[in-house]
């Protein structure tokens, strides 16, 4: 298994040639030492890519989304959720009507009166909202649910189509790799057989040469004896 990567500008795609058949090769399972070597090479390559591209491991990988960039409140809420902080409890004091005690000043009574008026206006608005919700809320909610169901159905169809396409691509890739792998295995066995035949011929030639040399020496000895 080997990889060959050409150096190009970081803003361009990196054409990479992978000399491997993942669906067919089982070298990593049969040779743990090879697996360790591959994992080490991957770690080294990832470190090199991080030095070139920063957090982006590859130009084709999109950058991280900066959610709620223009909405500070939503961004703070997202940060709170990510950090695992609990949501602050609702401030119930603002909904109470504290009564000034004995000896309260005019300013305290005025503040209490303003608070009472505020609470009254708040309750009036809530009453109006409930009346509007009772009159129009049901139909609006049904329309909203219908739109959500349509969106959910469309998203489910897109997901199913993407799964089918992914399965088809993986199936074609696996079939192609298995076909090529079997062909390579057959060619490798044929190559081994041919190499074995050549070695046998070479060994036979060596044995024949030794036999010829022995016969020549024997002929020489007989000639001298005569």
Question: What's the quick description here?
Answer:
The chain has 226 residues and is mostly helical. It has four helices and two strands.
The mean pLDDT is 83
User: β content, as a range?
Assistant: under 5%
Low-confidence stretches: 1-14
Q: Shape from CA axes?
A: elongated
Q: How many strand elements?
A: 2
Widest sheet: strand order? 1-2
If you compute it from the alpha carbons, what radius of gyration comes out, rounded to the nearest whole angstrom? 41 Å
Could you say which structural class the secondary elements and strand pairing correspond to? mainly alpha
- What's the helix-strand series? EEHHHH
Helix percentage range: 55-70%
Description:
- It comes from Vararia minispora EC-137.
- This is Breast carcinoma amplified sequence 2.
- This protein has a domain at 2-53.
- The protein contains four helices and two strands.
- The chain is elongated and about 155 Å long.
- The model is unreliable at 1-14 (pLDDT under 50).
- With 226 residues, it is mainly alpha-helical.
- The two termini are 67 Å apart.
- It has a two-stranded antiparallel sheet.
Structural descriptors:
4 helices; mainly alpha; single chain; 226 residues
Q: Strands, helices and their partners?
A:
Layout lengths: L1 E4 L10 E4 L7 H4 L1 H22 L18 H12 L22 H120 L1
Antiparallel strand pairs: 1-2
């Amino acid at each position: 298994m080997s990889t060959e990567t050409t150096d190009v500008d970081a803003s361009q795609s990196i054409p990479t040639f992978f000399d491997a058949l993942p669906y067919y090769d089982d070298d990593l399972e049969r040779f743990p030492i090879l697996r360790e070597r591959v994992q080490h090479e991957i770690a080294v390559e990832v470190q090199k890519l991080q030095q070139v591209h920063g957090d982006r491991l590859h130009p084709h990988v999109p950058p991280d989304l900066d959610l709620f960039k223009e909405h500070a409140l939503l961004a703070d809420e997202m940060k709170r959720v990510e950090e695992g902080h609990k949501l602050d409890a609702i401030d119930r004091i603002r909904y109470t009507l504290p009564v000034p005690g004995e000896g309260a000043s005019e300013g305290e009574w005025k503040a209490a009166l303003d608070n009472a008026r505020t609470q009254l206006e708040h309750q009036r608005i809530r009453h109006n909202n409930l009346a509007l919700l009772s009159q129009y809320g049901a139909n609006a909610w049904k329309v909203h649910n219908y739109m959500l169901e349509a969106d959910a159905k469309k998203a489910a169809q897109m997901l199913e189509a993407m799964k089918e396409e992914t399965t088809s691509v993986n199936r074609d890739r696996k079939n192609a790799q298995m076909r090529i792998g079997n062909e390579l295995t057959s060619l490798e066995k044929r190559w081994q057989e041919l190499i074995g035949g050549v070695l046998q011929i070479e060994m036979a030639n060596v044995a024949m040469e030794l036999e010829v040399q022995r016969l020549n020496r024997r002929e020489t000895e007989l000639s001298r004896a005569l």
